[in-house]
Design a protein that fits this description.
The complex is a heterodimer of chains A (about 220) and B (about 210). Chain A has about 220 residues and is mostly helical. Chain A is about 60% helix and about 0% strand. Chain B is globular. The chains are: A mainly alpha (about 220), B mainly alpha (about 210).
Chain lengths: ~220, ~210
């Protein structure tokens, strides 16, 4: 499942009018309305910006596991959540160090509320685990996106060491909720058996730093 | 810090073709062979690198090795758990597809494609006597493969290969976790995948 920003949080976060969001998918207005660190109009993110972005989504992931753990009862799920929270914190520490002055040290301001909203809608333990499963697949996809976006050796090495771990998280969690072999080992949309960028979290959609938009400002004038 | 090699718009077009598999095919202008698998046929815009070619040959032989190990388990009737045989065959197909893709990129860079299992690794293969022993070996091999791809990311001349190697390496890691879960090997074992001591040395050869 693709992870998209929650609409409610989006509205709260930027104060945009509902009318601006009633047509089309959430993603489109997001990129139009937000002025964000990772969403400048033409400039592709640098390695440092992508490292900062990666740190922010790792911290959001670590936070998610803290929130979902009390809702788990199966020992294997509890053990996984406990370990994975630590893994994501470690990932944030590693990749955040490559962000230099772009480092924020904060969980992604749109991804975290989006995940918490999904968690709030989860009706049972499998639903709870699925939120994490989808996130892990998205994280693996995001690291592949990062690998394909940069040539910086340090960030490449970091991404290459984290990607397999996120992928294995997805397999363990997916197994707990009965995902098929195809879903577990062929996450590409054609199910050929490749990691793909199909589910990557977009820095333009989940920017590291969110600023209020000119839409609100313009409406006041 | 280094920035993009290519505009983000090109990446989006890449993605529209179907993710990394599509990207690989797009880059290679693939053609289908008799088995339906795709092989690349175009010339590269990057100066061919002998080390890239040697690694691709090694990786192709590693994938063919995995195909052969799975086939040995299938032919030997080692797999008894209902449903597991289908899983093994499915993962075997993935390895075969990886091998074909890597072979195609080898020829794209001007090298000789390798389609035989790695002889050195075959010689070191431990005996497989039952399903559990096969699965433990499959876990070890998948981890070895994942490590082998991981150490090469960032160390290739043709930067296009970074995505392909990271993509296949991720799938190898998934295989290890899937089989590991069946035989009680908990993966991931740590926050980071440590390739030290697991990756196949380039000196092993294809």
């Amino acid at each position: 499942m693709e992870i998209r920003p929650t609409r409610r949080r989006f509205l709260r976060g930027v104060g945009a009018s509902t009318a601006a969001l009633t047509v089309g998918p959430v993603v489109l207005p997001m990129t139009r309305l937000l002025t964000a660190a990772g969403a400048q109009q033409a400039a592709a993110p640098t390695a440092a910006e992508l490292a900062s972005f990666a740190e922010s989504i790792e911290l959001a992931a670590a936070s998610l596991y803290g929130s979902l753990r009390p809702r788990l009862t199966r020992p294997a799920a509890v053990a996984a959540a406990t370990a994975y929270a630590r893994h994501h914190q470690d990932h944030a520490n590693l990749i955040g160090a490559a962000a230099g002055d772009k480092r924020t040290g904060k969980a992604n301001m749109l991804l975290l509320p989006t995940l918490n909203d999904q968690l709030g809608q989860a009706r049972n333990e499998n639903d709870v685990i699925k939120v994490a499963y989808d996130l892990e697949n998205s994280l693996a996809s995001t690291y592949l996106f990062i690998v394909g976006s940069i040539t910086d050796a340090g960030v490449l090495k970091s991404a290459a060491s984290v990607l397999p771990v996120e992928a294995q998280h997805a397999v363990v969690l997916g197994t707990l909720i009965g995902k098929s072999t195809t879903e577990l080992t062929a996450p590409d949309k054609d199910h050929l058996g490749y990691e793909s960028e199909d589910k990557h979290l977009d820095p333009a959609v989940f920017p590291t730093v969110v600023k209020t938009t000119s839409t609100t400002t313009a409406a006041k004038k | 810090m280094t920035t993009h090699d290519h505009p983000i718009t090109d990446r989006r077009r890449f993605l529209a073709m179907g993710g990394v598999a599509g990207a690989a095919l797009l880059a290679a202008c693939g053609t289908k062979n008799d088995s339906g698998a795709t092989k690349s046929t175009t010339t590269s815009t990057v100066a061919p690198s002998a080390s890239d070619i040697a690694f691709l040959q090694l990786a192709s032989s590693l994938e063919a090795f995995e195909v052969a190990v799975y086939q040995r388990a299938i032919d030997g009737g080692l797999i008894q758990t209902p449903g597991l045989l289908a899983t093994v065959k499915q993962l075997q197909k993935q390895h075969a597809a990886h091998a074909t893709l890597l072979e195609g990129h080898t020829t794209r860079l001007g090298g000789q494609g390798v389609d035989k299992p790695n002889a050195s690794l075959m010689g070191q293969l431990k005996p497989m006597t039952d399903e559990a022993s096969f699965l433990r070996i499959a876990v070890d091999i998948a981890q070895m493969a994942a490590a082998t791809y991981q150490v090469r990311v960032g160390n290739v001349k043709d930067s296009q290969l970074n995505v392909i190697l990271a993509s296949i390496g991720g799938i190898e890691a998934r295989h290890a976790a899937l089989f590991g879960g069946i035989v009680g090997v908990q993966l991931p074992a740590a926050s980071f995948n440590d390739p030290n001591g697991k990756a196949v040395s380039p000196s092993t050869g294809a």
